[in-house]
Write a structure and sequence with these properties.
Elements: E1 6-24, E2 27-41, E3 48-60, H1 70-81, H2 85-88, E4 95-109, E5 115-122, E6 125-129, E7 137-153, E8 159-170, E9 176-183, H3 186-195, E10 201-219, E11 227-245, H4 247-252, H5 255-291
């Protein structure tokens, strides 16, 4: 099956560089991430918002045809010559443009067994651009087959005013993600509920809102002042800016094709869950052995 479209563009100031070189399958690769500071609106007619967009890279030096990969050449310049805000300050930092990026899901099981799932960006090409040519943006156009449409609710089951479309995107080698795109625009919500339903094929334009915020809570105690607790919450929203039908996808993928891709995704996640449980069992056993003291009975 052909890949569905999934094309992201990030343009902003290079904030951090965390890249390294290594050998993988007898091929030199550069892996790691860069963080790009983007100051731009994330909703229609909204104010500019500061985002820090992490972009992951895994780029081989040589292509399968035996030629040097231009994406590796460009990324190596960032690794060896790039100037980030963290290193030289914002005024002297490089401005970059990342193209042909893909929005995918980072999904795994934590040590406690909790399923963790959030969008991330995989980069391909990155180049330094003149500051006067920079047009800050973090956006993507993504083909999706709608899996479901749901109103977001809080812990008490109260609707928050946000609507999610969970959409199926089929990528290279049929690797399948379910991407959550979201809006809190009442006009968009009304139109989505009136026009779309599960099984529809769409192309969605989204803006990437990746940031961190802190939340304070207070725990009451029996004696003394309440205990203040602060936690950092990471936000990685794909905010809907436009949607249109894409009947081409209906012609490209049958219902059986999509079901097989979803079954493969479920098997992949189940395999990760089993491996996580096995790792957790070994760690718990080792921990118990180390903490056990023979007290004679």
């Amino acid at each position: 099956m052909a890949n569905m479209n999934n094309n992201g563009v990030i343009e902003g100031i290079l904030s951090e560089i965390d890249l390294n070189t290594r050998v993988w399958n007898n091929n030199d690769v550069i892996s790691g991430k860069v963080i790009v500071k983007v100051v731009a609106p994330v909703v229609k007619d909204g104010p500019e918002v500061e985002c820090e967009i992490p972009v992951q890279f895994f780029v081989k030096k040589m292509t399968n045809n035996g030629t040097e990969n231009p994406a590796y050449t460009d990324l190596n310049k960032i690794l060896t010559e790039g100037k980030s805000i963290a290193a030289v300050g914002e005024e002297a930092a490089d401005c970059v443009r990342i193209t042909s990026a893909r929005v995918v899901m980072n999904e795994y099981y934590s040590r406690s067994g909790q399923f963790v799932s959030f969008p991330r960006v995989n980069g391909s090409f990155i180049r330094v651009i003149p500051r006067n040519q920079m047009m800050p943006k973090a956006s993507a156009d993504i083909d999706l087959i709608i899996k479901d449409i749901k109103h977001e609710t809080d812990r008490d089951g109260v609707e928050t005013g946000r609507l999610f479309i969970n959409g199926i995107n089929i990528g290279f080698n049929n690797y399948t993600d379910i991407l959550p795109i979201v809006t809190e625009n009442p006009e968009y919500i009304s139109a989505i509920e009136a026009v779309y339903q599960p099984g529809d094929a769409i192309t969605a334009s989204v803006r990437l809102f990746f940031s961190q915020k802190t939340e304070k809570t207070y725990q009451e105690v029996e004696i003394g002042d309440p205990i203040e607790r602060v936690r950092t919450i990471s936000v990685s929203d794909l905010i809907i800016s436009a949607i249109s039908r894409n009947d081409r996808l209906i012609e490209m993928y049958s219902g059986e094709d999509v079901r097989k891709c979803l079954e493969a995704r479920n098997a992949r996640l189940e395999d990760r869950k089993e491996k996580n449980q096995q790792t957790g069992t070994v760690e718990r056993n080792q921990s118990s052995a180390k903490s056990r003291i023979d007290i004679g009975f």
